[in-house]
Amino acid sequence: MKVNIKTDSITKISSDVITLGVDDKNQIIDSAKLDKKTVKYLNNILALGDISEQLGSARVVYGDHFYPKVLLIRIGDPKKLTPNHFYSAILSVANELKSLQFKSLLIPINQFINESLSSLKVSEYLVRGLMDAYYAVNSLKTLNTVKKKIFQTTIHYKGSDLNQVKIGIKHGAAVMQGGNLTKDLGNLPPNICTPKYLANVAIKLGKEYKFKVSVLDQKKIEKLKMGSFLAVAKGSREEPRFIIMEHNKGPKNQKPIVLVGKGITFDAGGISIKPSADMDEMKYDMGGAASVMGVMKTVGTLNLKLNIIAIIPSCENLPDGLAVKPGDIVTSMSGQTIEILNTDAEGRLILCDALTYAERYKPEIVIDIATLTGACVIGLGHHATGLFSNHDPLAAEIEVAGIRALDKAWKMPLWEEYQPQLNSNFADMANIGGRAGGSITAACFLSRFAKKFNWAHLDIAGTAWKSGKEKGSTGRPVPLLSQFLIKRAGK
Ligand code: BES
Ligand code: MN
Ligand code: ZN
After folding, report:
1. Domains, the chain, ordered by start
2. Cβ < 6 Å from ligand 1: which residues?
3. For residue 145, is pLDDT > 80?
């Protein structure tokens, strides 16, 4: 998408389509000072009463020669427009646009700016929303393929915050470039998106953004004694990969932020095999890894002055003659032993070794991102990511970033009371803690490998993916993570 800003009088800018808000009095919001004839014409159309009062509903009307098409969007009282409503309004604008023929789009943004929507936020959400909505699945269809429409978007702005508008556009675009990479990876089929494939994506990103990339193969993983990770990988003929990307653009003595992403490229459950209905969706069990790669793309694009390490343990979880069995006891890289009672609780088994590996970076903080538990979907549904942390200020910082990025996380307890559910008669711990509080005991398990640093865990099982007709990856929580890092970089 091409975006530019214009600050001339709006009456001097021609465009195939212009997008204008409609207020709660059924009038055009004319913050851009359109010519009087156009405003009158549009208000007369509005008076006919066909534009729904539903916030965010959009409709095209055909205007005078300057703007052949006017896309009206119901905003209601512009003073009360919230970031959330604005973002969904942009999504419905994009949806409406998809049915139109046009080459240029003009959006005056002063009409949306208010106390809770600064010029920075409006321009950021606007660009993000359009790129989000215009994302096209990297489809393997050979029939009836849709051609990508290319158009020029012009943002019209009048005011003293021009620089903020520019920053908003830049951040919005960078976040969605990352988010859309995450969607691409999540949507790929598991026979293509394998651990090796993910490693190649990391190498490519490294070349593009000058990250240092290391890819450890089976032998090197064995050398590191990652007994828990290797136990999961054992049931598959695809070799595991342990991927590390380093972006060291912060001050030399600044401790790094480590991001760890669960990279199970297919989760059949292993010997504790899953039911077959919808099992195809378990290709997105690398959603954590995909979001870490996506956010690294954002970080690289914005060249954030931070030290960031991305770590991705990646393998498949399949049943096989050689697969790990319920009852097997393995020794993790930390030395702690684990009784594997359910081979479908494999995410924590690969993440625990990655967390131990993270210790070597003496991190400032570690955040892991994982499609970890079905229980999290039951608890929080599809709107909020589950947030767990051993450090309250870190949890608060992540919560705030999520709200700002319209990509919310909700803090869950990580109290000691839950820990005994992981007791095992035969090893230091079991890998499952029973049905009660399943997402919490999963986090409790990880916490035992995160004692040496401030750590947060994001369970994205409910937020990284959409089922049903619009089945596919959402790109979450790239906006949250990007916002968290942008704020940390002081931008
Ligand atoms: N990848 C799944 C979690 C999951 C479930 C993600 C549904 C997205 C949607 C994970 O590996 C898993 O299988 N977890 C088990 C844990 C259980 C065996 C303790 C689960 O949630 O059922
Ligand atoms: Mn599983
Ligand atoms: Zn899984």
Report:
1. 2-159 (3.40.220.10), 177-488 (3.40.630.10)
2. 267, 285, 342, 344-347, 371-375, 377, 432, 438, 461
3. no
Residue nearest atom 5 in ligand 1 by C-alpha distance: 374
Residue 262 alpha carbon, nearest atom of ligand 1 = 1
Work out which ligand 1 atom sits closest to the CA atom of 373. 21
Instruction: Tell the residue number behind the tokens 């990509």, with chain if given.
Output: 407
In this predicted model, what pLDDT tens digit does every residue of 30-64 receive, in sequence order? 999 999 999 999 999 999 998 899 999 999 999 76
**How far apart are the CA of 317 and the centre of ligand 2, in A?**
7
How far is it, in rounded angstroms, from Cα 397 to Cα 414?
A: 17
Ligand 1 centroid to Cα of residue 396, in Å, is 26
| Ligand whose nearest atom lies closest to the CA of 373 | 1
How confident is the model over 347-363, as a mean pLDDT?
A: 99
Query: pLDDT over 70 for what percent of the chain?
Result: 100
